[in-house]
Amino acid sequence: MAGSSIGECFRVSTFGESHGPAIGCIVDGCPPGMPLNEADIQIELDRRRPGQSRHTTQRQESDQIEILSGVFEGLTTGTPIGLLIRNTDQRSQDYSKIKDLFRPGHADYTYLQKYGRRDYRGGGRSSARETATRVAAGAVARKFLREHLGVNIQAWMAQMGSLHAETFDAAEISRNDFFCPDAQAALRMADFLDALRKEGDSIGARVDARVTGMPVGLGEPVFDRLEADIAKAMMSINAVKGVAIGDGFAVVEQRGSHHGDAITPTGFQSNHAGGVLGGISSGQDLTLSVAIKPTSSIRIPRQSIDVHGQSAEVITTGRHDPCVGIRAVPIVEAMLALVIMDHWMRHRAQNADVQAPLPPIPA
Amino acid sequence: MAGSSIGECFRVSTFGESHGPAIGCIVDGCPPGMPLNEADIQIELDRRRPGQSRHTTQRQESDQIEILSGVFEGLTTGTPIGLLIRNTDQRSQDYSKIKDLFRPGHADYTYLQKYGRRDYRGGGRSSARETATRVAAGAVARKFLREHLGVNIQAWMAQMGSLHAETFDAAEISRNDFFCPDAQAALRMADFLDALRKEGDSIGARVDARVTGMPVGLGEPVFDRLEADIAKAMMSINAVKGVAIGDGFAVVEQRGSHHGDAITPTGFQSNHAGGVLGGISSGQDLTLSVAIKPTSSIRIPRQSIDVHGQSAEVITTGRHDPCVGIRAVPIVEAMLALVIMDHWMRHRAQNADVQAPLPPIPA
Amino acid sequence: MAGSSIGECFRVSTFGESHGPAIGCIVDGCPPGMPLNEADIQIELDRRRPGQSRHTTQRQESDQIEILSGVFEGLTTGTPIGLLIRNTDQRSQDYSKIKDLFRPGHADYTYLQKYGRRDYRGGGRSSARETATRVAAGAVARKFLREHLGVNIQAWMAQMGSLHAETFDAAEISRNDFFCPDAQAALRMADFLDALRKEGDSIGARVDARVTGMPVGLGEPVFDRLEADIAKAMMSINAVKGVAIGDGFAVVEQRGSHHGDAITPTGFQSNHAGGVLGGISSGQDLTLSVAIKPTSSIRIPRQSIDVHGQSAEVITTGRHDPCVGIRAVPIVEAMLALVIMDHWMRHRAQNADVQAPLPPIPA
Amino acid sequence: MAGSSIGECFRVSTFGESHGPAIGCIVDGCPPGMPLNEADIQIELDRRRPGQSRHTTQRQESDQIEILSGVFEGLTTGTPIGLLIRNTDQRSQDYSKIKDLFRPGHADYTYLQKYGRRDYRGGGRSSARETATRVAAGAVARKFLREHLGVNIQAWMAQMGSLHAETFDAAEISRNDFFCPDAQAALRMADFLDALRKEGDSIGARVDARVTGMPVGLGEPVFDRLEADIAKAMMSINAVKGVAIGDGFAVVEQRGSHHGDAITPTGFQSNHAGGVLGGISSGQDLTLSVAIKPTSSIRIPRQSIDVHGQSAEVITTGRHDPCVGIRAVPIVEAMLALVIMDHWMRHRAQNADVQAPLPPIPA
């Protein structure tokens, strides 16, 4: 049953395989009257685009966005925004060798078992290529959030393997190849990846994110809590294996007297909660962490089976990211934008005229 | 906008406040012909029920389930199953003192800001009492999964504060007050909680879960991946701050050559993925961890403000769980049952007649 | 797959069979702060309630509504409103004779074929009894629409068999047993039904409706047009076989020069469109007609088969409405309220801050 | 809030304006393994395409379909099918004159009031051009229904103005310019339209449809009844003002003894119900009628206002259909295919393993 849509009010539906003619999406429900052009989206796509440094896949996709509808005279009209990206560098021949194999850690086996067939070229629908459409749709949401509501979303490489970002300089994030806020750590990451590439191996990563300027009141208990929909959105990104809000798994060892964020007339005194209380945004910064597994496409030989159930050795020789966590950074931001935008609209549907008893009191 | 429903094919909608007349839910879409009676549900509710040991809230709720519809002559009919639980031990007077206060870590502030008003009696809708309806609905799904598909779901207390379950004896889980698979650890937990209660403090916990007998093919990429919907379901449970599938956050430091689960003709050689590849169940056991924050209702005085924005000290004196993680165990199981059931039906809608090329090859 | 919910923002989920312990519903997404008590709902239920005149079924249901949640201190809280009605007069024995028969025109056959079993007592889920929950939920929406937005909804018996309401006196609608705006026609209807009852037969009806005070801008093209969701809601009512908006089927013979409603600075000059243009409310009155088939439960013997496929004669001897169109009047109103309320919220989600270029110009 | 998607399991999302770069849609949830190529879709698009006779708009659109995803090696893969149609003959200059005017009967006024702006070129999103994407998506569903389930869908022009099709020859439907099953009536329609075109006026129509080979059991009471979702789908088509199932509005004057379709061991004896009982398909042919208003774009001058609220005269001089009912025929078929396909999948989700007690007994 159809699973390629996300959002209720700001609904994004995507299509496209890695090596088909094109990928794209429909952004339905965008508020009208927002200035929007291709450049607004292209700037975000370019951050995710492969082939921009030696540390990501050398596939050369221009990822040129085309707006097909929903914008007139430079402004959104409120009707669905059709977005299209042509695939230009497919090299399908790279994949003929693994056509009948299940690459360990890949979706090859599960897609075949679920659907009885699969587009084996570059992972087909399960390829990270699909995330370009998320970034495109996210760019629309993000622009609205930023310009209309003052919401800013920032993600960064917090950890790659055992290498941590130890300092935080927001300006540094866009300066290195890793979206890393610590210039020194970025240098170590470069060296580490150079070595890893030679070995033909890959590495996991942790991406952290912070959203500032959060409106109070977003989230729809009891199931569609803000953090629940964020968790879903994050875990829907390829390779994500864990999601944590605020203090995340550290809460396991915390006491209530420590965890509960004290409040004073001038603001919250801490933010262990990560900006969500009872499933609803508190107006504090939203903070979260995402764990991203190492790419499954590696050159090191591994044991597997073929589609006939026979033993086989797998070596993946296509162009791949040794650390998908790098390019996950703009994707995490995009998915956050989609969820927050959707929840802002959902909140407005029910509570547009509610007078909050207090002015917001973020930390 | 409405957020109290979950599931597409097996859809559960809930209602009810902690201190209103009743809580309940509708289970819509259950396959017809399944034997079902109150006892099938009561047995699960009794596991979650408060007041069963000195370690959980002393509120005495009988949590008596009543099936109002959808069952005829002992079998489900395929029509909505209405489930009702009357609240019997509300003691609303306990809450008058905190009527105008925002308890740190609680949803008091966010509910008031979102809706402009709130039912302050016992947390109202944000109370963990709401989760009884999840357990009731989950019992229906769980019975179907177990009896019809051979799927078994088990969660347990893996860690309370710094106390870990160090051994795993499945039979032990139901023998102690903590759903702990390690009898020795359970003794330590009891001592720890006795001390904690005296201090008036609370503690976090980690609940782990495993699902055996998983069908292959469940999950609807790209957004409604199985792990994405599980993450949402888990994070929709009160007090949950983190969700991890398979190796979870440990993947950050893993290499691809380690993480990718090798396959042989006789099965997977490991299960780092936790039973999901590309958003679709592989047939391996589903494994996950959930981080649960310490209860925010503690007797230790804390700094906060009142509804007028004035400084105030808060002491929560009602009956509360010092470790909500304990009662979270059956709730985690129930939410897993709901998601898996829903995805089994979703998969069937599209792929009921697909011939999987291979027999399942779980580890 | 779950089909007992309606609405996106103002979402109603229902449960219950004719002869089970209770029927009920959850109203999720209601804006907070609206005064609401049982009497607000009871007044609408009493209009639909059976046994109020000799012209409707003599089943005696008190249809006593109980609000289980979502209201605190007399005001809606924004959380789900649980509504419950106990069944009190079931007389299941009446149905034992037709347990194995398919009554012509009834859902007996299709429920059994779809689900493999059915609750045969009084039609089970397919009974018109289910509509009581729609009226209860509709009462909540209707109160909001009336008091908050000035929207008024009125339906009436426009035609019963060949008897037409020839005059329209709004005050008369509540004075006779048929919701008929023409007192003379009502007298003829009474005589006609008395004769029909003796024959053991039943008759069809046309119910018309008008909504005044419509906001401009409701409806979400291209699929969720206002008239599309209204058509669905109407056709979801038991026994409805046709829905028409504005001039309805008369448009087949109209010319464009006649049909298109001219506009002047002081308003629309006609309302052939029935208040909807391009799927969006124009601010004119919403007008519609609904065709309701004759009750299938009649005393006249008919030819059918039993559950073994054998020929059988069917006589329905339970307590039934000779003209279900009568009690359909409040149900049509309730369903209209649900759709308009939902669409008002949906519109607000996307367009709450849109400045309409013109003040509304209804006729 | 997003309204450009339809269907739960077989979900279609559309985008595109009349005079933008392209229109298109995503078909999500299609069962895998079905042969599909552009020609399968093009053949349906060509039936709806404008400019094929003098009786429809002279706009020359090639309506060339491109499949962008979801098909691999000639078979559907189960992933979303992206479909694209470039707009090639826009002539936007035709519309500059009515940029600031509200054409009577058009969506100009409501779009502007709802969204605060509108794409005035050719009606933008409200143009019938949007329906090409419905036909494209419908072609996918239709192929599956026909080849996999033996379901056949046929619609035809039953009445244009006061001209009725008086005989029914299925083969004739594709032979004339009106999809009319009566060759003689088609000749009269041609003459009538020739005269009408000279007057610059337009005319309404009634389109009837019949679906044969219906599976028993489709439809999800109580709200998502089969006829309810059909009514919505029909009323979501531009210009549709009425929908009737089976005997439709004729039931108003019918008696129960006449309306209820008798059943014998060899089949139903009549089909007043139109193939649906209690919201669920009975296996009989599905029959319905749709009322389509006359095109609002006519050359006859009409009174209206401009966007400043000032009086204005409107003459529509673009290329338009004098009877939109003609091209509605393939659109009605497409929407029927979408609804039936979706409901077949929905039914399967819940009831795939139900053993129907009886073999189907259609008339």
Automatic annotation (TrEMBL), chains A, B, C, D:
Q: List the record's Gene Ontology CC terms alphabetically.
A: cytosol
The record ties this protein, via InterPro entries, to: Chorismate_synth, Chorismate_synth_AroC_sf, Chorismate_synthase_CS
Q: Specify the signal sequence span.
A: none
What cofactors does the UniProt entry give for this protein? FMNH2
Q: Known Pfam families for this protein? A: Chorismate_synt
MF terms (GO), sorted A to Z? chorismate synthase activity; FMN binding
Alphabetic keyword roster: Amino-acid biosynthesis, Aromatic amino acid biosynthesis, FAD, Flavoprotein, FMN, Lyase, NADP
Reaction(s) this enzyme catalyzes, per UniProt: 5-O-(1-carboxyvinyl)-3-phosphoshikimate = chorismate + phosphate
Which PROSITE patterns does the record match to this protein?
CHORISMATE_SYNTHASE_1, CHORISMATE_SYNTHASE_2, CHORISMATE_SYNTHASE_3
At which positions is NADP(+) bound? R48, R54
> How many cofactor units bind, and how?
Reduced FMN (FMNH(2)).
According to the UniProt entry, what is the EC number of this protein?
A: 4.2.3.5
- Where on this chain does FMN bind? R125, S126, S127, N238, A239, G278, K293, P294, T295, S296, S297, R319
What residue ranges carry the coiled-coil annotation? none
Description of how the protein assembles with itself and partners? Homotetramer.
Main role?
This reaction introduces a second double bond into the aromatic ring system.
Family classification:
Belongs to the chorismate synthase family.
> What is the protein name stated in its UniProt record?
Chorismate synthase
The species this protein belongs to is: Acidithiobacillus ferrivorans
Q: Where is the organism placed in the taxonomic lineage, from the top?
A: Bacteria, Pseudomonadati, Pseudomonadota, Acidithiobacillia, Acidithiobacillales
- In the UniProt record, what gene is named as encoding this protein? aroC
